[in-house]
Amino acid sequence: MTAHVPVLRSASAPHSTGGAAAAAAEPHQMLKLTVRLPGGDALTVDAIEGLRLVELLRAHELPVKAECGGAGVCATCHIRIPHHWQDQIPEASDEELARLDEIPGACDSSRLACQIEMNRDLDGLELEIAADSYAADKHTTIG
Question: Residues 36-46: what's their mean pLDDT?
Fold first, then answer.
């Protein structure tokens, strides 16, 4: 079963579309999320409190593999969170740490996007899609 991923409207993300999902999202305060791609391009997009980071990346059609659909079993939504954000995000579970151990390029800033839920404390969060989870075939031109 595939989870419904809302499409978010954002002035800074021209490739996003509106529609019923965007209208349903309006009662929530829009937060911001800055996403950097492995090549260095960056984009700041709208984010809704309560959605997992992987859902936000997919809603904005950003190129992350996320092969298991966010179930936390494939480790293909590998992201890196800058050190200055580490105190704001929840600690990784033992299961997430085990998945991260399976990734050759994982480091102390590595996390799985499916395991972090957006909240007000994360407004302005910066992340980088790790090269091993970058879906080049889903690449969206930024700029």
Answer: 95
Residue 73's identity, in one-letter code, is V
51 in helix, strand or coil? coil
Distances (CA, A) of 141 to 8, 37, 67, 130, 133: 17, 11, 22, 17, 17
Domain of residue 65, CATH code: 3.10.20.30
Model pTM above 0.85: no
Q: Quick one: which of 80, 28, 26, 22 has its CA closest to 53?
A: 80
Which structure tokens are listed for 33?
Answer: 């999320």
Residue 8 lies in a domain: no
Quote the number of domains for the chain.
1
Q: Which domain holds residue 82?
A: 20-138
Cα separation of 139 and 90, whole Å? 29
